[in-house]
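Ticket #4471: structure output looks truncated?

Reporter: J.K.
Steps to reproduce: submitted the chain below (272 residues) through the standard prediction queue, then opened the result file.
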Amino acid sequence: MVIHNTSIKIPPVFINRIFVRILSIVLGQILVCSTLMAEPAPNVIKIAMIDYPPLMAANGGIMNDLTEAAFQSQGVAVKFQVQPMSRITYSLEDGSFPAVLGTQSWSFKSEVVPVRLFFSGLYFFTLKEKFPRGVEFDTLEELSKYEIGYSRGGSLIPVFNKAKLNPVLVVKGDQNVQKLYFGRIDMFASTELAGWGIIEKHYPNNVNEFSISKKQIHKISGDIIFSKHQIKLIKTFKKGLETIKHNGTFLKVLQKYYKNREIPSYLLDGLK
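Returned output as attached by the reporter:
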């Protein structure tokens, strides 16, 4: 029996091309792997917050910008996530977030470490046609006959309780300005920036119809609040905060949000 040689002879030129192709793929994989090893994934932390523009919001706010700038100065990236107020106060305890934006006066369910970003005054907003001279008062008790709008879970609740006031509570601050405009409440309480922010958002052509009380109701701190276990992260943030206070970034953020309004002097203390 004759056995024929059926093997296929491949021309040397094709062998060389195949070899070069395989070699290029291998070298490419090596290059990709070495690049990944040389450039580790960026350090990103998640921070929870409520939607309360322009102090904090999904599309940016003064507290977002200050927090992000401070961390970025230390090489740390930040990702913000909007959460309901009820979830915020538990998020540090269950470890779902290492930090949240808010105020230390909120009722957190575990030991926390607040780092102050800035102070913000709380005022009454109303319509000029209802109060031509603005809301005037010596004590809060004098306002008991009025319907006052306020956000559920806000830091003024204990203050209102002490004054025996029963505010009309809403879930979102936007509802306050809408209720005011349609006559369902007489005034609402808010920080200066947030109050004007929601007015400009819903009634940009009617801003001059609104007024803010000359007298401040209360002053609260705007804080980034850490779990007590985040010792290294707290140290990093504090260092970054001092950096942006001295390099002009902090002041630029304030100017961005206060626009043509005067920046309170207490916010400028310690800035270079």
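Triage note (M.O.): checked the attachment and the full token line is present. Residues 66 and 109 are 25 Å apart (CA to CA).
Status: closed, working as intended.
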